Amino acid sequence: MKNDEFEQRMRAMEAFHTLRLPPGVWTVLRVDGRSFTHFTETGFEKPIDSRFQQMMRQTAQALLEELHGRYAYTESDEISVLFDPSWDMFDRELEKLVSISAAIASATFTLASQRIAHFDSRVWLGSNPSDVVDYFRWRQTDAERCALNGWCYWTLRKAGKKPDEAMALFHKKSLADKIALLHQHAIDYDTLPIWQRRGTGLYWETFEKIGYDPVQEKDRSGIRRRVKIDEALPLKEEYGTFIQQFLDAFVAHS
Q1: Which one-letter DSSP state was computed for residue 131?
Q2: Environment class of residue 84 by beta-carbon count within 10 Å: exposed (0-12), middle (13-18) or buried (19+)?
Q3: Would the pTM of this model clear 0.85, i.e. be above it?
Q4: How high does pLDDT run on average in the chain?
């Protein structure tokens, strides 16, 4: 068999190699830490460790920069990165997107934490901007739920309750009941840092940079781009409006 025929036959067996993102859709890439419950058992403060979240932000920024995304959102051990319909890196190959994004996240977090960490990756597709808004509102709702439950659980554990006892005391309780439970332990949930309750957003912003021109011997300014880390995201409908600005910006320039 000729070499080119042999290679063609072998490549035909790469089952998912030809899968590509459909044209004209909004894409969200979500990476999640693998076995991070076990990973964070030692060396991290409970329920929320600011050092851990800083490493997650570093990882989110690496994904946003390396993959040329429009917006990234991180909460707990997950990161979502938004790509507009014109995004064409890797020729929109699904296999490459999920494998390379998981590799970027794993490498960045491992380097930051000095402990081996693994991430998996998946792709979400939205046919229109309202789907995208709903997606990020969904993830923020999950952030709120996880944060409140985490505070309830670890507050009870630190008060001496065993794991099953702690879970039973707030399981299926209402939002008001959980907040009241924390109040009983002198914790005002509503005054905790916003990023703990709502997650963190990362996006591009422009700024003026002043430099020195040695030829003309004078200062010159230029517009540059950098990633902004937003620790005070709005909530619910206002967050939806916030996300909409990234979608509108794409439409305005397309």
Answers
A1: H
A2: buried
A3: yes
A4: 92
